[in-house]
Specification:
- By secondary structure, the chain is an all-beta fold.
- It has 3 domains: 62 residues, no CATH class; 93 residues, Immunoglobulin-like (Sandwich); 87 residues, Sandwich (Immunoglobulin-like).
- Strand 17 and strand 18 form a beta hairpin.
- The protein is rod-shaped.
- The relative contact order is 0.11.
């Protein structure tokens, strides 16, 4: 009797690495969902978490983590359409100059195609033809791309690809520069809290607090000359110390928080 050999096919990525690694991983593996699988490859210290059709994470012991899968680093459809995304981060706190640019690459099985884009949050694109967005604030954006294409046998089909795209920001200011020292000695230099270009934000409001959290000033329409802090009549009641402030530019941008050191000679 002829004996039949049993063939087992494993749905597993085999990961090769020339880097040394420890036997006890220090990075917690990520299980995608309950339908996936998570296991160690023998006694190697390599853990694999996978799920058919979803991304998976290989975790190497030590400090190395590699993440890859069907949708990283680009979104790839089952028929071969792919999406590359370029993100330009917001340069500074008081600007809205982030950008997203999307490039859809045609599948080899498609003769022609067109893409309809649906963005979240709503309002960043007026229609469905936006493959680029400009003037963005720092936040996370989501896009669904409905691809309508004609294949090589003349059939019209559709596919939907989605992408979550974070646009990073910055805590640094562009127009506004706040100096961290006040030398209240009546020499005309930094006698009050100095804020460069504050006059471009006439609806601003500055709130100042002492180290115990007590508000000691609330100034609307702050400027460096006629409406500054500290005023001469209040200076005698202030001790040399670190003070904290909240600056609202009055233009809908994020509140600016920081500290300033008062020095009295």
């Amino acid at each position: 009797m002829m004996r039949m050999k049993k063939i087992i096919v494993l749905n597993t990525l085999v990961l090769f690495s020339l880097n040394s690694f420890s036997q006890n991983p220090t990075i917690s593996p990520q299980v995608i969902n309950s339908a996936g699988d998570h296991r160690q490859l023998g006694a190697t210290g390599i853990y694999i978490t996978d799920n058919v059709g979803e991304p998976f994470t290989e975790t190497l012991g030590g400090s190395v983590m590699i993440t890859q899968g069907f949708i990283q680093p680009e979104v790839v459809s089952l028929t071969g359409f792919s999406v590359n995304v370029k993100v330009i981060t917001v340069t500074c706190l008081d600007k809205q100059d982030g950008e997203i640019h999307i490039e859809v690459k045609k599948a080899s099985s498609a003769v022609n195609y067109q893409v309809a884009y649906t963005w979240m949050p709503t309002g960043v694109c007026a229609g469905t033809n936006c493959d680029s967005l400009k003037g963005l604030i720092a936040q996370t954006y989501t896009v669904d791309m409905v691809i309508t294409y004609t294949n090589t046998v003349g059939s019209v089909k559709t596919e939907t690809l989605s992408r979550v795209i974070p646009v990073a920001g910055s805590n640094e200011l562009c127009k506004i520069k706040i100096y961290s020292g006040i030398t209240a000695n009546n020499d005309g230099n930094n006698d009050v809290m100095t804020i460069d270009n504050i006059e471009e934000f006439p609806k601003n409001r500055l709130m100042v607090y002492n180290r115990w959290g007590t508000q000691i000033a609330d100034i609307k329409g702050y400027n460096n000359s006629t409406n500054g802090w500290p005023t001469k009549d209040k200076l005698d009641n202030l001790v040399p110390s670190t003070y904290f402030y909240i600056l609202d530019l009055g233009d809908g941008s994020k509140l600016i928080k920081g500290w300033v050191e008062l020095i009295k000679n």
